[in-house]
User: Which sequence fits this backbone?
């Protein structure tokens, strides 16, 4: 399969200042919610007039990815990231240009959109922009558009920004995305099946079957750093346009099973990871 990418440390949470440069924030949905892994605690704009978020850091950062797990960006939406070398003014380090969102799933039955009310039932989108590794970043700006969004506003649950890890070889064939549905059902005395609707989350399972020593070392470092307690963002088949195949294989979650890094063959190593959405 194509290359896999993982963001394991979220530098967004180390911000010095967090500001809305363009637009306004809906009451009860502050920007500080973007640092909370509770997915229904969101930041929300008041309209669709290209809101722009600015984050600064007290110390220089290195970045190569920005992910937006659990957002309401539908097909036709865009976001654009610019990086600068100073908290105020300074020089432009990188401009991603417009990053497209090329696909969106239908709203779950019973909901009118993929916004936060539906996140626990299969709603929301996980979109990402990968770009050339950029050092010396003190300020990041993210601008959004979402023409025709039925919600009438932009809504984000989380911003994940950092440096992605990309092993030399991607996930082996056989990777799987499972939809875990907690719905329960029982038969009535008349023989009818009655169900109690539960929540839905996804679980991604994949194997890294041919890691060299360098990739093994990087994976060991990742596992020691995040363990099962910290969320990571995984893109199984990164492409660049947030099309359906990418959205299907992008997940923000936690490792839920112990990982064994095995000596597969001489000088090569293997491991299997299972990640459940937050």
Assistant:
């Amino acid at each position: 399969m194509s290359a896999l990418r993982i963001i394991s440390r979220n530098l967004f949470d180390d911000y010095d200042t967090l500001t809305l440069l363009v637009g306004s924030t809906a009451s009860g949905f502050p920007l500080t919610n973007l640092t909370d892994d509770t997915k229904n605690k969101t930041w929300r704009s008041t309209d669709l007039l290209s809101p722009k978020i600015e984050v600064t850091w007290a110390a220089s950062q290195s970045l190569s990815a920005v992910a937006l797990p659990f957002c309401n960006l539908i097909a036709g939406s865009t976001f654009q990231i610019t990086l600068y070398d100073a908290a105020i003014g300074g020089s432009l380090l990188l401009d991603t240009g417009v990053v497209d969102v090329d696909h969106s799933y239908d709203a779950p039955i019973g909901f009118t959109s993929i916004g936060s009310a539906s996140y626990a039932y299969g709603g929301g989108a996980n979109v990402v922009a990968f770009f050339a590794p950029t050092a010396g970043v003190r300020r990041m700006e993210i601008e959004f558009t979402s023409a025709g969004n039925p919600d009438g506003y932009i809504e984000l649950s989380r911003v994940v920004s950092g440096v992605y890890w990309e092993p030399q070889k991607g996930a082996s064939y056989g990777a799987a995305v499972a939809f875990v549905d907690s719905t329960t059902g029982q038969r009535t005395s008349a023989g009818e099946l009655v169900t109690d609707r539960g929540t839905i989350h996804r679980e991604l399972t994949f194997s890294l079957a041919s890691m060299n020593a360098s990739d093994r070392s990087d994976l060991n470092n990742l596992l020691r750093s995040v363990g099962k307690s910290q969320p990571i963002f995984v893109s199984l088949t990164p492409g660049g346009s947030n099309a359906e195949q990418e959205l299907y294989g992008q997940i923000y979650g936690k490792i839920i099973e112990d990982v064994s890094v095995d000596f597969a063959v001489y000088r090569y190593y293997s491991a299997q990871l299972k990640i459940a959405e937050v």
Summary: The longest strand covers residues 125-145. The chain is about 5% helix and 45% strand. The chain has a mean pLDDT of 96.
